[in-house]
Amino acid sequence: MGSLIEVKNVTRDFQTPGGKVSVLKGITCTIQPDTMCILRGKSGSGKTTLLNIIGALDDPSSGQILIDGKSSHSMNAIARENMRRRQMGFVFQSVSLIPSMNAIQNVEFAMRMAGIKEDMDKRAAEVLSIVGLSNRMTHMPQEMSGGEQQRVAIARAIAHHPRIILADEPTAELDSGMATEVTRLFKQISEEEHVTIIMTTHDVGLMGAGDQLIELKDGRIEGSGEDV
């Protein structure tokens, strides 16, 4: 099976008042399709920067990101936006649900933004059922727990059938039990929906949750492996 994502000698530098800061220092790795990759590192290790570059939200200072063998950073702005909107789903630490919309409306709104034309009611109900919220579809965000809100955010991210989901510290605000449950849900979704998931975390307890583990330290890969 060929790699879906190839990261080739990627660096990322930022200019600060004190001079240049190198956040990524020559990252090279591959991620296979339909797998779950845990990208682990302490705060400041560069994991979020790498995730943003893979998601075409930021550009590398040097190096390449290839998706299906094509350089995402050689695309024009419209092509990159279409790739993000149609092929990718994003889940962040802050769930950012629309407070005036209930769960199913939040999912349907994301589908409209992605240009989905299928039966939105049916698909939104389906993905909320996948994340275990079939009995909470009409609840407002303020009526749900933090874990339930994160599940709505996950449903929203998978509703448009993306090939890749990028999740940045999605369990950081959850207790350890809920964090483990949400991580297991990501693994289930990867297998059942045939989605490649890249999830960042600083939690040592989640290291064995995926098919692949990539550890970052000070902007470099410290270790990686499969079937971790």
What does this structure look like?
The protein has 228 residues and is α/β, with parallel strands linked by helices. It has one domain (34-43, 75-226): 3-Layer(aba) Sandwich (Rossmann fold), CATH 3.40.50. Helix content is 32%, strand content 29%. It contains 6 helices and 10 strands, in the order βββαββαβαααβαβββ. It has helices at residues 47-54, 77-87, 103-113, 120-130, 146-158, 176-193, and strands spanning 5-16, 19-31, 36-40, 62-67, 70-71, 88-92, 164-168, 196-201, 212-217, 220-226. It has a 6-stranded mixed sheet, with helices on both faces. A hairpin with a 2-residue loop joins β4 (62-67) and β5 (70-71). α3 (103-113) crosses α4 and α4 crosses α5. The chain is globular. The model has no long low-confidence stretch (mean pLDDT 90).
A few lines on this structure:
The chain has 228 residues and is an alpha/beta fold. It has helices spanning 47-54, 77-87, 103-113, 120-130, 146-158, 176-193; strands spanning 5-16, 19-31, 36-40, 62-67, 70-71, 88-92, 164-168, 196-201, 212-217, 220-226. The two termini are 19 Å apart.
Helix content: 25-40%
CATH class: Alpha Beta
CATH fold-level assignment: Rossmann fold
Unreliable runs: none
Strand content: 25-35%
The topology string of helices and strands comes to: EEEHEEHEHHHEHEEE
> What does the largest sheet look like?
6 strands, mixed
Shape assignment: globular
Structural class, please? alpha/beta
Strand order of the largest sheet: 6-7-8-3-9-10
Distance between the termini: 19 Å
Number of domains: 1
CATH superfamily caption: P-loop containing nucleotide triphosphate hydrolases
Could you tell me the radius of gyration in angstroms? Answer: 17 Å
SS summary, helix count: 6
Arithmetic mean pLDDT:
90
CATH architecture annotation: 3-Layer(aba) Sandwich
The count of β-strands is: 10
